[in-house]
Design brief:
The protein is elongated, with a radius of gyration of 31 Å. It is built from 15 helices and 13 strands. It folds into four domains: 49 residues, no CATH class; 171 residues, Rossmann fold; 72 residues, Helicase, Ruva Protein, domain 3, CATH 1.10.8; 60 residues, no CATH class. The protein has a five-stranded parallel β-sheet with strand order 6-9-12-5-13. Strands 1, 2, 3 and 4 form a four-stranded antiparallel β-sheet that branches. The chain has a two-stranded antiparallel sheet with strand order 7-8. The termini are far apart. By secondary structure, it is an alpha/beta fold.
Length: 413
Amino acid sequence: MSAHQVASHPALWAPGGLTARRSDGEEFAAEATLSQADVRGQKLFTLILRDVDERRRAEEERRNLLQHNEYLQEEIRSVLNFDEIVGQSRILTETLEKVRLVAATDSSVLVLGETGTGKELIARAVHSNSVRTDRPLIKVNCAALPSGLIESELFGHEKGAFTGAGEKRIGRFELAHGGTIFLDEIGEMPTELQVKLLRVLQEHEIERIGGRDTIRVDVRVIAATNRDLQTAVADGSFRRDLYYRLNVFPIRLPSLRERTDDIPLLVHFFVQRYAGKIGRRISRIPRNAMDRLIAYRWPGNVRELENVIERAVILSPGPDLEIAGELLPALESPTDLPAMGSQRQDISSRLSADANDMSLTAVERGHILAALKQTKWKLEGADGAARALNLNPSTLRSRMKKLGITRPATRDI
């Protein structure tokens, strides 16, 4: 058919306000496109009806996929920062056994530990070893989000729900449906939102801000904090009922000070990682460098150790890892021991004779010996050497064995 025999006209679009009926008699909201074409002098009309709800569902699914992609990209970046949990100490092994046991259940988990101990790693381990491993693990840092945005971030909002809500947003609980949500720094959650979180845990339902529909969600909750939540409950800054809901299965992560046996493994792990990333060839870690790393107290735990090793690799020009003086503060003085009444000063005075020996191994040996002598070689308990040194008893025994410390035969010590 030649072009001059067909003439088309602009199409008309009716975006809504129409209803149509399916072949089974069911009515549905519709939008329509009406087009006209002149064919050999005759007018031909074409009417196309589309299910408005179906289009909206498709658009919402597209938004969901985009947001899932955004969160998954964030998860990938996080995974690249921490490849695995490194360590073989008894206290860490016991912690990982708890992870294995609770992962097979669907119970809520509360991960407790100081900053930098790897609470997110534990949350990932629980999720990865659960039946939900093929579904998303969605992370929310409750301390990083402004209080005015955290509700929208958790539960989502409808378009126009508040100033600036230009489009509907799917909350992280919806994104985590079928999977796990990790609420990091849960102790920083505003009190007005704690009751809404409690409802999700109890009813498994959420409502978007500005929405009327109740949305069912199937989500496992893992929370983490470095705060003492029991104290927060006592002072009224954290809801008691929410605490009990979260604290179904607590997992306490040991500090690096409690697992010094793992420091050499961690050091070698991080050296290998950053030497390869930066392009250095580090083939040896001198004994004095390792001694310094083991003797340091690590207030920032594994995260601080990782940062120190990364900087040390950058600053090491040769095959030996060099720990520059500015990377680690001086070894803590004996007065930094945890207070134990009059024992604290007694232990400090006994250390003064060893302080002139600049060998870190000798200083550590003297440190432990002083505590043992003061506590009459009692290792455990409130008045034991492990408490005085702020060490786990098993860690103290391991350090004593490595340093060749044995109890004298005579009891007059």
